[in-house]
Amino acid sequence: MTSEQVAARTADAVAETGHKGSGKAASEGYERGLGNRQIQMIAIGGAIGTGLFLGAGKAISKAGPSLILAYAIAGLVIFFIMRALGELLMYRPVSGSFSDYAREFLGPFWGYVTGWTYWLFWVVTGIVEVTAAASYVQYWNHSIPQWVSALVFTVILYFANLISVKLFGELEFWFSMVKVTAIIGMILIGIGVLTIGFSDAGDTATVANLWNDGGFFPHGIGNTLMTLQIVMFAFLAVELVGVTAGEAKDPEKTLPKAINTVPWRIAVFYIGALIIILAVVPWGEFMPGVSPFVAAFQKIGLPAGAGIVNFVVLTAALSSCNSGMYSTGRMLRDLSLNGQGPKFFGQLTKGGLPLRGTTFSAALMLVGVWINYQWPGKAFDYVVSFATISGMWAWIVILVAQLRYRRKADRGELPQSAFRAPGAPWTSLFALAFIVMVIVMMGIDKDARVSLYCAPVWAAIMWVSYLVLKARNPQAFERKDYTQAAQAEAEQKVEQVA
């Protein structure tokens, strides 16, 4: 590629976004305001949510100690997914990563579906989490109406996302810090109970609790497999670090570092925490709907344990809602710039923030909270269940896009990524097969089957809207040649290093 072509590519990017020079992502217009400290904690926080603090209670009652193995295997799959995402991010770090990679390697239609599906995933998740956060407040004060708390939380997070991306990063940093501190504290207290024997649990706490009561698989391997959907739900949002690519300072360094911490994060915060909890409290004492952390604190004899966990779960819910506000605005803008969404969402503020997309998404979250408050029936549950299947759709797209990118890169058609996924394509194929198995398990489980009922409805909506938009604007769904852009960006990196 000639220097004139590189210059032309850069000029096109500046014309498209209206931003140029240092501090801005040249191809998107966002401000690179997220530093290494914030990216690391966003990555950690994305892997720790209410699925661990609350959902693990139901999974323990189903699988017993073998849940540890389920988290270990699922954690390995998540690492494969994240390394596949990392390879794509280092090839072309863009804020609309999932839909943009789908657009490039699968086709415009799949980019359209992925962008809107991921947007809906976070809107639904935001509705659920802000409503949950409001209910957690009632633990301390029943006189505060749930809708008041939901409104206050939504407004605060909305304005925090409009001030600057740095403030979003700071909020996520401290939300994640609370979760990390709680888990590490539980692990240290549990180790103290097991080694020194203090507290009410000292007489019965033993590592042998992991196999004493019915063995490691008390309900059989089949029941352990059925918990994989709960386990995978707990990991949803770990891919959020990819959405930060367009606003990360020095993404070539910060993003690989964050992705490479996935194994030890899962080892400590999931596997380590579960081993300690199940050693301190026999698995048969856990009940669905009761946080295993609360049960462990009560067994140890810490009366403040329930209040502590309630505060931690509150921060986890607010963290998820905060992430939803952040990602939805970016996804709507990506769709807008590619002609696959309303042009209205394409404009940024002077500070490089997608005000219109974030406002629209926040408004929908408020409507959802109101609907949930007025009609908390099965219809709402159906919508909520869609979050699981739509979240896994993003993972499927990441893996398929990485497989196609790797083939093109190996043939010399595209520049090689500086952060190649180890073991690919086999690791990516294994992860895809695992996700398919989880979806099959969801179909078998009558409680989770509703998620699969929602998927065809959404698919029909996507197909009909695609046909309408394509008829109005055929150019938006034409295949584009990304080779020139990728080579230009690679040459720009070389020039910067030189």
From TrEMBL:
Protein's UniProt name: Alanine glycine permease
InterPro entries the UniProt entry points to: AA-permease/SLC12A_dom, Amino_acid_permease_CS
Residue ranges annotated for the Amino acid permease/ SLC12A domain, each copy included: 39-472
Similarity comment: family membership: Belongs to the amino acid-polyamine-organocation (APC) superfamily. Amino acid transporter (AAT) (TC 2.A.3.1) family.
Compartments in which it is found: Cell membrane
Keywords per UniProt: Amino-acid transport, Cell membrane, Membrane, Transmembrane, Transmembrane helix, Transport
Annotated region (Disordered), positions in chain: 1-29
Main subcellular location: membrane
Membrane topology: Multi-pass membrane protein
Pfam family, one: AA_permease
Spans traversing the lipid bilayer: 41-60, 66-85, 105-127, 147-168, 180-199, 219-241, 262-284, 304-326, 353-373, 379-403, 424-444, 450-469
